[in-house]
Amino acid sequence: MFTIKKIISVFVMPLGLVVVVWLAGAALFFWKKRRGLGGSLMVIAALLLIALSLPLVGQALLRPLETDAGSYAEPQALALAGVRDVVVLAGGTNTGRRPVSDKLSQSSLKRLIEGVRLWRSLPRGRLILSGGVLSGEVSSARRMADLAQAMGVPPHAIVLEDQSKDTADEARLLVPLLSGQSFALVTSASHMPRSMALFKAQGLDPVPAPTDFRSTSDEPWYVYALPCIEGLYMSSAAFHEYLGLLWARFHGFWPPQMEPAP
Prior knowledge:
The chain has helices spanning 2-12, 14-29, 35-52, 55-69, 75-80, 106-120, 140-150, 167-173, 175-178, 192-201, 221-224, 229-250, and strands at residues 85-89, 127-130, 158-161, 182-188, 205-211. It is an alpha/beta fold. Strands 3-2-1-4-5 form a 5-stranded parallel β-sheet, sandwiched between helices.
């Protein structure tokens, strides 16, 4: 199911959606009776690609998610709330022969740095790193642990969860470690609403500690109106999270406290 879900998601993400529409248009274009429709679909695909590559569009799609995530966590506030443990969710790794500092994706790196920052102010707690094997032979959690130790976190303070395939798995597998206590949950801001829903659905008590904000940059206005890879990346990240939220709601991973007020 995990593999099937990933394959299907490729075709509903921005780039995959554009390719599907363009290919459908190209196929119809060679059918004499549907040439006009085919040409229209190819133009729509091109316009869709341009629109989804605009930072203005990408930020507009991400902003509601990142607003729901809240602001950066303050260590003092976490300590007053009784938080001791810091949980960091992996966001992907890089394969190949690389130094420890380059084995994590950009999202994983930002999440880990934020997790270590918070843990340093809660030194009696644990730094719990979560993420299974998605590519290669080493888990995402292990990759994060290697860098965390290089940053000065002692091995005895690190706990690994390295069997999960996705966020729902992470929430389920971390129940034995976190049940009955508050903990800081570190992940990308756009991923936080879905993570909070999934963890609360397991009866856990996470305190959001978002990082990796992407909709808050302060660039000149014309930068937002020019198509670029970063704009497409933001749109793709937003699509991924909205689809994930729909999946969570469809499968019942949506606790009552996450429902919007009437």
